[in-house]
Amino acid sequence: MSSEIQSELDMLLHQLLNLTLNFIDELETKVSKDIEDFISERQDLVQQLQGIMDVQKMNSLQKEELKVILTYDLMIQERMLLIKNEAQEWLLQRNLAKTQRSLYESKYASESYLMDKRK
């Protein structure tokens, strides 16, 4: 039973590594939806790993493979931060444009009248 669990642990670690490497290959072109999908898939694999690790501990090779996978986290976090900052900047620009536009748009009461006097 232990070797079955070890091979399942190896398989999950390999899937996690492949998922991470495939994601990292095109990291600069990833958008928020891509990151959400990656995180969702990754979370599923991590939960499966945690379930197995409740029964069986990792051997030294598996621990090393996990360390390799975790080395990519900083790159992924930086990309996520960049996308967040871009979205934040876009929202600020949008609100600024809305404010400037509203200054030029006249807001008249629908029942008001404009009256001219003749001289």
Could you describe the 3D structure shown?
This is Flagellar protein FliT. It comes from Paenibacillus amylolyticus. The chain is 75% helix and 0% strand. The protein has one domain. It is rod-shaped and about 105 Å long. The protein is an all-alpha fold. The model has no long low-confidence stretch (mean pLDDT 87). It starts with a helix and ends in a 15-residue tail after the last helix. It is built from four helices and no strands. The longest helix has 32 residues, at 73-104. 5% of the residues are buried.
SSE topology sketch:
Blueprint: H1 2-25, H2 32-53, H3 60-70, H4 73-104
Organism: Paenibacillus amylolyticus
Protein name: Flagellar protein FliT
Q: Strand content of the residues, in percent? A: under 5%
- pLDDT averaged over residues: 87
Structural class: mainly alpha
Kindly, what is the distance between the CA atoms of the first and last residues, rounded to a whole number of angstroms? Answer: 104 Å
Residues in helix, %: over 70%
Low-confidence stretches: none
Helix count equals 4
Which geometry do the CA atoms define?
rod-shaped
Order of helices and strands: HHHH
Number of domains: 1
The overall strand count is: 0
| Radius of gyration of CA atoms, rounded to a whole number | 27 Å
Largest sheet: none
Protein name: Flagellar protein FliT
